[in-house]
C-alpha cells in the first residue's frame, strides 16, 4: 500500500523540507551508539522560589544511557537528599521546594552526564538562581517645589531584583501618568520633565516595580510636586518683603537645551552581538527640545533601527560588530542645541562557525571532527573525551588533536566515544557533543516502501531515500521498471539520498527506484510521483471605490486540478473577516452589504489545496460625504471684515474640493442661513466682508465629489457697528392706480442692508416739466406710498432714499412715473375699408389726439363681424372677431373673410385703463369666390346602360352658382382608367340620367360646381351598370357618411353584396402623403367610431371589405370640431340637481307612507300603466330591413340638419359644413400685425358652423349621434 506525501511548492517550504530530510539522517536506534543529549535546561536558569525546581537532562543512546550530576564541580549524590529525585529513564532532576525545601539552598552550577558503554555526553553548566523581589527601602521623600519652566527629575531607584523589574509610573487611581516629548520615563526608571508646567502639580507621582517571575508589584511612596507660576510667586514675595526690598521673580524665560541624561559630552557603551542596543538622550529646555540621532561616519542600519520614547531612545536590534561606532544625539529648540556622543563597542560571546557533527565510521575508515567558533575576543578551543579533558583521557592511537580539529585514522570499534568541544571567552562559552561510532552495517533504506509523492506541475519534486549503512552506501536512482540510471542536469542528487527534480513536468510522473549499496550489501526501494495541475485564480478581485452604505462585491473564480479539493478563505488586512452578517461569502465571491468606513482595507482571497496555495488581493475604499468642519474661530474683527478659520473634518477618502461659508443674521432673520462665499478645499481661512448692524454667525460646509457635509457648528456671534445705509431701495416706480393718484412703489431694503436701527424711507416727487419744488414725506419701513389729488396721466419725477437713526443713504437717482390713466375720450375717425380679395380686406383710420388718450397708448382694436351671406338670405348668430394692432398704427389687415358676404367693423383706441368709444360701424362686402364641393353625390337606379345621378348644392356657394361640371370614365378589372367624358350641367339642376353606358362596367365620377370666379373642389363616387335586369351581384359599399365631433367621428355606410363580409375603415389626414391607418370593424356592422382624432383637423376616410381584392368605397373628407375651452359640466355633480333629486326622493317616500296607511285601512289605490301608450317619440326601433336606427326629427320635418347628422337618401357622400379658415391676422387671441400690416397671429373667438342648406330630408342618424340626440 502506497503512503501518500504532498510536497509543498513554495521555496521556503522546500528549504525547510530538505533540512528536515537532512537532519533526519541518523543512526537507527536498534544499532549501538554513544549517548546524545536531546534536551537540557538553559545555562542561566532563574526559578520561582515558591515552586519545585526542575532541571532537565534528556539523552538517547544504545544501550540506553545512565545519568549522573555534578554541583559546583563536585559529584551531586541525589540519593542523600530526600528533596531531590530523578525521573525514571531520564536524567531530569526534580527538587521539591513546595514540601519544605528552600530554593536558596540549591543555588549553584549543575552539570548532567549521560553514559553508556560507547561513551559519555555532558550538558552545559546550568546556573540555578531563585528570583528575588525585595521591598523598597523606606526613605523620607520631601515635596518638590519647582518654578514653572524649570526641569525636574523624579528618581525611582527600584530595589535590585532577579531578574530586574519592569518600571512604570501611576497615580493613586492606578492610572498611568501621561507621557509626552516634555515628560517621559528614562531607561533607569526615573521620570524626567524637560520643563514643568502648572498642570504638573500633584501629590501622587508613584513609581511601581513589577517582578514578573514572582508576579508581584512593589510600590514606592508617593512623590509630591508643586509648580509655582510667576504671578503667584511674585504675589508671595510681595507679601513677605517690605517696600524697600528689591523683589520680583522673573517671568518664565525660555532656555536652550541641557542634557539631563547622559551627562557630559561623551560616554561609552558596550553591547554583545545579537542583543538589542538601547541608547538614550533626555534634555531639559524651554521650549521642549527635539531629539535627533545620527551615526558618525555611517548610516543607521535600515530595518533594524527604531525610535522610542518620543525619539529620546535609539533602538537597534540584532547588533553585530559592524554596528560599533560613535552615535550622536542632538537636542535642539529655538534657542540653541546641545549634543552628546556615545561610543559603542560591540563584543561577542563565542558563536559557531562549524560545530562538530557525529561521525559514523566502519572499521578501518578515516574521519575528522571540526570545531570552529568565533567571538570578540577570539575564543579558545578545548576538547574533552567522554567528559574528561582529552589530555588526561585514555590514549587512542587512531586519533590526533590538531587545534580545533581531531583527525581519526584506521578506526576500530574501540574508537567509539563522545567528544566535547568547548569554545569560551570572557563573555561566555559554547559546548557541543559529537560522537564517533564505529560500526559495520549493510545498507538500510529508511524511507517507507511505495511512498506516493504529489507535486504541482512546474514545481520542484523531492523524492526521499533516507538510508543508513557503514561504510556509507552509494545511492543510485532509476525511473520505471527497466529504466536506466538517472543522470544529467535535469536532476539534482543530494548527499542524504534525496532526488530533486527542479521543474517537474507532466512526463515526470511515474515510479522511481532508489538503490543503496556498500561492500556489505545492496537494497532498493520504489516511490511514486504524481503531477497535478496548478491552482489558478482566473478572475481576481478588483479595486473598488464604494460610497458609504453601498454594496461591494469581490470575485474570486478559480481553476484547479480535479483530484484536489480547494478551500477558499477571505481575509481582511491579513486577518479573519469580521464576524458580521453583512459579509456574505459565496462560492466564488465576497459581498459586503451596507459598507461602512471600518470596511476600508485590503481583501485577500486565498485558495488552498494540499499541494499549493494562491492568493489575490484588492483594496476597498469607502467614500462618503466629508465630515463637517469644526473649531470655527473668528479673528481680526474689524467694522467691515473678519477672518474666519476652521479645521476640516475627515474627507472620507474623497478629497474636499471646496468649502461653502454661510451666515446667519440673528438680529434680523434668526434661524435663516444665507450663502456668503466659498473657497477651494485647500484653504482653511477666509477674509469675509461684513455689513454694519448685523449680528453674524458663520458656519462652514465641506464639499467633495460625493456631496456636501453637514454644516459645522456655528461660530461665535459677532455684532457689527451701526452705520447709515449704503444703498437705496431698488425698482422704484410711479404708476397711478386711479385717474387722480400716483402710487410710488419700491423694493424695501433687507434687514442686513439697513446698516442700523430705525430704517425709514424718504419719498419725494414733483411734476415733470413744471417748475415745482420737491414734495417729500418720510415713511416707515414699507414698500409703497400713494399721492392723491394728482391730474390725470401727467409725468412725475420720483425718488426714494433710505435712512436710519445714524443718517441718510447716498442721494438716490430719479425715475419718471405717471399719475393714473382714464379711459380714452374719442374714437378714431375717417375709417376706410379697402377689399383686397374675397377673403382679405385692409382697414385705415386716423389716429386720435394723444391728449384724448389719457394714458399710455397701447394700440387700436378692430371689431368686425359678418352680417349675412349675399348668396342666401339666411342669418345666423353674430360672432364678433377682434384684431389688436400695437402702437400708433393707422391700418391693418382683416384676414379669413368669407367670400360674397356683408361685414361691419368699427375701431377703438386702447390705453392701460381700457378701450375708448367705438367709431361708427363701417359696412363692406366681399366679392364672389369659388364654391365648396357639392354637399353630396349619390348614384341610383343602375340599369344595363344607364345610371341616375343626384346631388346637393355646395354648403358654401361663395357666390352665384353658374353651372356644374360632371366628368366620368370607366375602370376595368385591373383598375386602369378609360377615356374621360365631361358634361356641363345648368346650376338649377339637381339630378341627371346618364345613358348609353356599357353594361356591367364600373365608372368613376368627378363632380364640382362653378361660380363666375371659377370651379370649386370636386366630389368623387363610383358606380356599376348591371349585367342584366336582375339585382347586380357585384358587391359595393356606398353612402359613406361621417358625423364628426372634437376628438372622434362616427362612420356609417351601406353595403350591397355577399353576406358575411368583414369590413375595415381606413383614414388619414387630408392632403397628407402618410400611409392610411386601418381599423378592423367588429362583426358585420355598418358603422364604426374613430377615436383619438386631433381637434380642428381635416381627415379623409374610406371603407373596404376584407378578402375582396380592390373592393373599397370612394373617399370622403370630414373635419373634426375645434378644441373646446372647457368641457360640459356634468349635471350629476351640480348642487341644484342633487338637491332636486333629494326633494323628489322625499316626496316619493311620503307618497309611499300615505299608500301604506290607506292600504292598511282597506282602501284601494289604482295605478294605470301607461308606458306603452307614452313611448318616447324621439326613439324609434331599429329597422329590420337595413339594420339602421329609426329616424329622429324635430317638430318640423325639413329643418336644416345640425352639424354631425347624416345626409338623407341613398348613395350620398355628405361633405361636412366648412367655414373657410380665418387666416391669422392681428391679435385675436395671440395674433398681431407687423409694421406693414401683414398678419402674424390669429383672430379671436371660435368659428361657428353654418347649418346645411337645401331641401334635404333627415335620415336616421348614426348610433352615436342617435344617443347624443336622445341625451
UniProtKB/TrEMBL annotation:
<keyword id="KW-0325">Glycoprotein</keyword>
<keyword id="KW-0393">Immunoglobulin domain</keyword>
<keyword id="KW-0130">Cell adhesion</keyword>
<comment type="similarity">
    <text>Belongs to the immunoglobulin superfamily. L1/neurofascin/NgCAM family.</text>
</comment>
<dbReference type="InterPro" id="IPR003599">
    <property type="entry name" value="Ig_sub"/>
</dbReference>
<dbReference type="InterPro" id="IPR003961">
    <property type="entry name" value="FN3_dom"/>
</dbReference>
<feature type="compositionally biased region" description="Polar residues">
    <location>
        <begin position="1255"/>
        <end position="1271"/>
    </location>
</feature>
<feature type="region of interest" description="Disordered">
    <location>
        <begin position="709"/>
        <end position="729"/>
    </location>
</feature>
<feature type="domain" description="Ig-like">
    <location>
        <begin position="443"/>
        <end position="530"/>
    </location>
</feature>
<feature type="compositionally biased region" description="Basic and acidic residues">
    <location>
        <begin position="1166"/>
        <end position="1186"/>
    </location>
</feature>
<keyword id="KW-1003">Cell membrane</keyword>
<feature type="domain" description="Fibronectin type-III">
    <location>
        <begin position="728"/>
        <end position="822"/>
    </location>
</feature>
<feature type="domain" description="Fibronectin type-III">
    <location>
        <begin position="628"/>
        <end position="723"/>
    </location>
</feature>
<feature type="compositionally biased region" description="Basic and acidic residues">
    <location>
        <begin position="1208"/>
        <end position="1217"/>
    </location>
</feature>
<dbReference type="InterPro" id="IPR013783">
    <property type="entry name" value="Ig-like_fold"/>
</dbReference>
<keyword id="KW-1015">Disulfide bond</keyword>
<keyword id="KW-0677">Repeat</keyword>
<keyword id="KW-0812">Transmembrane</keyword>
<dbReference type="InterPro" id="IPR007110">
    <property type="entry name" value="Ig-like_dom"/>
</dbReference>
<feature type="domain" description="Fibronectin type-III">
    <location>
        <begin position="827"/>
        <end position="929"/>
    </location>
</feature>
<dbReference type="InterPro" id="IPR026966">
    <property type="entry name" value="Neurofascin/L1/NrCAM_C"/>
</dbReference>
<dbReference type="InterPro" id="IPR003598">
    <property type="entry name" value="Ig_sub2"/>
</dbReference>
<feature type="domain" description="Ig-like">
    <location>
        <begin position="130"/>
        <end position="224"/>
    </location>
</feature>
<dbReference type="Pfam" id="PF07679">
    <property type="entry name" value="I-set"/>
</dbReference>
<dbReference type="GO" id="GO:0007155">
    <property type="term" value="P:cell adhesion"/>
</dbReference>
<feature type="region of interest" description="Disordered">
    <location>
        <begin position="1166"/>
        <end position="1271"/>
    </location>
</feature>
<dbReference type="InterPro" id="IPR036116">
    <property type="entry name" value="FN3_sf"/>
</dbReference>
<dbReference type="Pfam" id="PF13927">
    <property type="entry name" value="Ig_3"/>
</dbReference>
<feature type="compositionally biased region" description="Polar residues">
    <location>
        <begin position="709"/>
        <end position="725"/>
    </location>
</feature>
<dbReference type="Pfam" id="PF13882">
    <property type="entry name" value="Bravo_FIGEY"/>
</dbReference>
<protein>
    <recommendedName>
        <fullName>Neuronal cell adhesion molecule</fullName>
    </recommendedName>
</protein>
<dbReference type="Pfam" id="PF00041">
    <property type="entry name" value="fn3"/>
</dbReference>
<dbReference type="InterPro" id="IPR036179">
    <property type="entry name" value="Ig-like_dom_sf"/>
</dbReference>
<feature type="transmembrane region" description="Helical">
    <location>
        <begin position="1136"/>
        <end position="1157"/>
    </location>
</feature>
<dbReference type="InterPro" id="IPR051170">
    <property type="entry name" value="Neural/epithelial_adhesion"/>
</dbReference>
<feature type="signal peptide">
    <location>
        <begin position="1"/>
        <end position="24"/>
    </location>
</feature>
<dbReference type="GO" id="GO:0030424">
    <property type="term" value="C:axon"/>
</dbReference>
<dbReference type="InterPro" id="IPR013098">
    <property type="entry name" value="Ig_I-set"/>
</dbReference>
<feature type="domain" description="Ig-like">
    <location>
        <begin position="350"/>
        <end position="437"/>
    </location>
</feature>
<feature type="domain" description="Ig-like">
    <location>
        <begin position="257"/>
        <end position="345"/>
    </location>
</feature>
<feature type="domain" description="Ig-like">
    <location>
        <begin position="534"/>
        <end position="621"/>
    </location>
</feature>
<feature type="domain" description="Fibronectin type-III">
    <location>
        <begin position="933"/>
        <end position="1029"/>
    </location>
</feature>
